[in-house]
Design goal:
- By secondary structure, this protein is α+β, with helices and mostly antiparallel strands.
- The protein contains 15 helices and 21 strands.
- A 5-stranded antiparallel β-sheet has the order 7-8-12-10-11.
- Bound molecules: flavin-adenine dinucleotide.
- Flavin-adenine dinucleotide binds next to strand 5, helix 6 and strand 12.
């Protein structure tokens, strides 16, 4: 099997290769402020209909360096769209912020007018939390600057940058930090929720690499959030999502890194799933931190049902080959695509199959023990449909170096996260697409111990239990910095 073809098609054959959301709206066009010709109707924080006057919207347009887009602006339609094509919403205004001051003015505007506020980083939220109907979309898409301090091995990264921007800025310097598996995901929502990636067994979650952040809170103030400066907020933004304000910049710890890494996919027919999964269950708990390897179950466009293992070895390739040898010896593979290659190739291999505009549904479950019962259920639960797949994010290693109370993210003792994903393009398949994902998730739910909030479609009612021992502290901090719950379009922690 051709390796590149596999990478392009493993998620779902029904997914079109490209859905460019930007259309008429190029991010490189110079900003053009738009004055409102007449008052516009909008939606308040509580969902009531309100009206914004001409003068109010002009005032915001005048205060910002970036443009404020209203529905008649030619860039509006491109700017309002988010990654998941299921969320086709129309904000009353879009503030395309250029800097921290633009964010402050936009936050002040939303708060003072009691206006519904959505903060858009990379726009990847599965449930579409970064957009809204009738509110203000505070759009960070043009804030993508990254400054790398090579000697100090740190980087300041704008809150609207994408993971690909971060890798592009650090890899040429021989440096890296943990970043997720699709390069067009935003650093904003991704980092604030936790941040799983192919290097997390070595360097921890992305939140474990956050040294500080510039945060604009609901009072419109800019706060320098660090462990020694704002300890509560520093704790809360590492896993507590967008509840506490808008991050205009993150500071990340970087690590020396050789970008030529042993990586790729090992693929077997699904008929060999028992051998592969039973081996993995025994082998995985003793893996080195350099080794990241996790099962994938999917259906190829030609109908071939597969079990695969994604492999990334962050270390001496000779050692990596040795550690991998027993896995490679299992059964008869239909493809061995593990080779020494540029990390950037691995970090972008899922980009096309998860392109903007796809209609998608996702759930996940955190697995404390990869047991025999789980293996049995994974085999029974398999859905042979190219629109559905399961992936895993391997945890353990450095992820477990931090305790459940050390940051807002409590699920430190998970060995693996199983991600249930479905993707399709035809709106008529929405029901079927969602149902497949839910069914696969439900079949294995007995093995889940909590979930990762960033890869979850519906979290209403479970936020309290999923934050577990951290919820009360999170709620207290929320009450101090956002008592009016201005930042509510997220996995919302209601102020006490
Ligand atoms: C194709 C795909 C692949 C993914 N792969 C991974 C992965 O490998 N690892 C992983 O851990 N997760 C992964 N995720 C999940 C991802 O972490 C979340 O979807 C995350 O919310 C994306 O961040 P974003 O900025 O792009 O999202 P957005 O939709 O812009 O925002 C999501 C939430 O974060 C808030 N937010 C965004 N930016 C800021 C900011 N600067 N300040 C304050 N609040 C902000 C928004 O208001 C919203 O509530 C993936 C998602 C997709 C769709």
């Amino acid at each position: 099997m051709d390796r590149r073809k596999f990478c392009r098609t493993a998620v779902a054959a029904g997914v079109a290769a490209s859905f460019p959301i930007m259309g008429a709206c190029s991010r490189s066009e110079p900003p053009v402020a738009t004055a409102a010709k007449e008052g516009i109707s909008a939606i308040s924080l509580d969902g009531a209909e309100i009206s914004l006057s001409k003068a109010q919207t002009r005032e915001l347009g005048g205060a910002l360096q970036g443009p404020v887009l209203l529905s008649e602006h030619p860039d509006y339609d491109g700017a309002r769209k988010v990654w998941n094509g299921m969320h086709d919403k129309h904000p009353a205004l879009i503030a395309r912020c250029q800097n921290s001051q633009d964010i402050c003015h936009s936050v002040d505007f939303a708060r003072d007018n009691n206006l519904l506020l959505a903060v858009r980083g990379g726009g990847h939220s599965w449930p579409g939390k970064s957009t809204c109907d009738g509110g203000l979309m505070l759009d960070l898409a043009e804030m993508t600057n990254i400054d790398v301090d090579v000697a100090g091995q740190t980087a300041w990264c704008d809150g609207g940058a994408l993971l690909g921007h971060l890798d592009d800025a650090t890899l040429p310097e021989g440096l890296v930090t943990t970043a997720g598996v699709v390069s067009h995901t935003g650093v904003g929502g991704y980092t604030l929720g936790g941040g799983f990636g192919r290097l997390n067994r070595m360097y921890g979650l992305t939140i474990d690499n956050v040294l500080g952040a510039e945060l604009i809170t609901a009072d419109g103030k800019v706060r320098n959030v660090r462990a020694d400066n704002e300890p509560d907020l520093f704790w809360a933004i590492r896993g507590g999502g967008g509840n506490f304000g808008v991050v205009s910049k993150f500071q990340y710890q970087l690590h020396p890194f050789d970008r030529n890494v042993l990586s790729g996919m090992l693929v077997w027919p699904v008929a060999q799933a028992r051998d592969v999964l039973e081996f993995y269950a025994e082998w995985a708990p003793n893996l080195s931190r350099e080794m990241y390897v996790g099962p994938v179950m999917a259906t190829m466009p030609d109908g071939t049902n597969i079990i695969a293992m994604e492999v990334v070895y962050n270390g001496d390739p000779v050692q990596g080959e040795k550690e991998l040898a027993p896995l490679r010896a299992i059964g008869t593979m239909i493809m061995d695509g593990v080779l020494l290659q540029d990390y950037k190739v691995t970090q972008t291999q899922e980009d096309a199959t998860t392109a903007h505009g796809i209609r998608s549904y996702a759930k996940n479950g955190l697995i404390k023990e990869f047991s025999q019962a789980l293996v049995n259920d994974m085999i029974d639960a398999y859905i042979p449909d190219p629109r559905a797949a399961i992936f895993t994010h391997t945890c353990g290693g450095a992820v477990k170096d931090h305790g459940e109370l050390d940051s807002a993210f409590p699920h430190r003792n998970a060995e693996t996260m199983i991600v249930y994903f479905s993707g399709w393009t035809d709106p008529e398949q929405d029901g079927e697409g969602k149902a497949m994902c839910k069914q696969w998730h439900a079949s294995l739910s007995a093995h889940h111990g909590g979930y990762y909030d960033n890869i979850e479609q519906e979290t209403a009612g479970t936020v309290v239990s999923n934050y577990g021992p951290n919820f009360a502290r999170l709620q207290g901090i929320k009450g101090q910095v956002d008592p009016g719950n201005l930042f509510r379009l997220n996995s919302n922690i209601k102020p006490a």
